[in-house]
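Pipeline run #58 for the internal structure catalog. This entry was flagged by the ingest filter as a single-chain record with no existing model, so it goes straight to prediction. Upstream metadata was stripped on purpose; only the residue string is passed forward. Reviewer on rotation: M.T. Logging verbosity set to normal.
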Amino acid sequence: MSENMQELKRRMKSIESTEHITNAMRLVSASKYKKAKNVFDRTSAQIQEVSHTMGEIVSAAQNALQEKEEEKKVCDDKDASTILILITSGRGLCGGFNANLTKKALSCVAEIPKDKLEIYAIGSKGREFFEHNGYKIIGECEESAERITFAAASEIARPLIEKYRNGEAAQVLLVYTKYINSLKQEPVVKKLMPLDPEEFAGSGRELEFSQDPKEVLEYMVPKYSELTLFEAAMESAACEHAARRSAMENATDNANEILAKLSLTYNRVRQAAITNELIEIVSGAESQK
């Protein structure tokens, strides 16, 4: 009986320590989530303005864009690869955040031969997964998504877009996590290149270009892709901290639930031990009469 009580006390102490750790991580993640969400909100507002402007430019230069893409198709090599930019976290303890991203990435490239797929990983979890499964890793950003600046995003996107423009890549895909709310985040796939004109809702205004529309697109499209990658990194950072906060909150609740059950079991065992001792005392007193 005493051995059972000691074992229960050890388990209760261990789970209590775990609960303190998960609760502290929940508080840290909540603070980081709030900060990352504020950065993402500001970035998203700027992206909306740029996207609206891009919509006007693409609508006005629709013919130039179609001609540019037709020229690109003619020049494309049949052996051109697909570039996949994957934004995951560099750490675990965030529930199914990374698993959902890798699953989404695999589903979107399921029909692409492995030797025609090139991975650029932002976050070590994505790199480790695809490297382990034998995919070609052409680059990795060691910084976490929340620490990526616009300059860093530009350095990542520029050579990848250049590979597309040179015909070395048939398309450039971006896989990241879209923020729905603090409790729900969804992995999504976005095509960075080639540009889809239907993605932009132009204002219908007629724009006049002082330069050739093709030259304007040559400059604007890469810049827009760089800004899109930066926004995706900021959004993924907010989603990561939200997922980690939820995971740690669930872990804390589970620890408290297990601790409550163990406390109830411990009290029952202790009460049974006290009852047995009382019975022995009473029995001993009765035998001496």
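catalog note: The longest helix spans residues 213-287.
catalog note: The chain has two domains: 2-20+249-284, 26-246.
status: ready for reviewer M.T.
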